[in-house]
Amino acid sequence: MFELISYERFRDTPKVRFFDVTIAQSNARDLVYHEGPAISPHNTSDQYWQFYLHPHQEDNLLALSGGRTFYLVNFQWETPFHIVRLEAGKDILRIPPGTFHRSVSDADGSIVLNQAVRAETTSIQKEFRVYNSFKIPKLYEVTSVAAAPPRIHGMDSTMLRAA
Ligand SMILES: [Fe+2]
User: Fold this and answer.
1) Is 110 a domain residue?
2) What would the pLDDT profile of 69-99 be if each residue is shown by its tens digit?
3) Ligand 1 centroid vs 2 CA: distance in angstroms?
4) How many domains would you assign to the chain?
5) How many whole angstroms from 19 Cα to the centroid of ligand 1?
6) What CATH number did the domain enclosing 31 receive?
């Protein structure tokens, strides 16, 4: 399952906030900046959702500014489809390997730091393939409006419609 990880806030005053956000096992870092309401990976030209899936990488995602909504699908989970809200300065979202994921930023965009844990034997090319949900029947079925609704975390249905 995915996890929401809290971290130590050393100092939290109106003007200074100081956090230790170390993910001890992380051996790769990426920083993703969304300008405005970006979708990552972007939808196909006919508006089908696309997803990333890392076979050999765990993501640990911390929003540094703005907000972003993550769509997670993993067929190993009891409920395969979850929608998780990430907001600046809140918990770190840990996504295990083998999980389809896509994200949509709020209207003002967002900056997310990923402290990844990547297997030594893999490559960036293998880990950053994009999967079109329309071409993967099970993925399409689970995320379609006809399927059981996703489990929502950290947001209400009003926010979901706005995302
Ligand atoms: Fe990822």
Assistant:
1) yes
2) 999 999 999 999 999 999 998 999 999 999 9
3) 12
4) 1
5) 23
6) 2.60.120.10
The C-alpha atoms of residue 113 and residue 120 are separated, in whole angstroms, by 20
- Provide CB contacts within 8 A for 136, sequence distance 6+: none
Burial of 103 (0-12, 13-18, 19+ CB in 10 A): buried
What is the span of the domain harbouring residue 55?
3-154
The predicted structure's pLDDT at residue 161: 55
Report CA(68)–ligand 1 centroid distance (Å). 13
State phi, psi for 140 to the nearest 5 degrees. Answer: -65, -45
Cα 13 to ligand 1 centroid, rounded to whole Å:
32
**What residue type is assigned to position 71 of the chain?**
Y
Q: Model confidence over 49-61: pLDDT tens digits?
A: 999 999 999 999 9
Where the chain has pLDDT below 50, the residues are 162-163
Cα 39 to middle of ligand 1, angstroms: 13
Q: How far is the CA of 18 from the centre of ligand 1 (A)?
A: 26
| Residue 160 within a domain | no
Question: Per the domain annotation, does 123 fall within a domain?
Answer: yes
Instruction: Determine the distance separating the centroid of ligand 1 and the alpha carbon of 58, expressed in angstroms.
Output: 8
| pLDDT at 157 (0 to 100) | 63
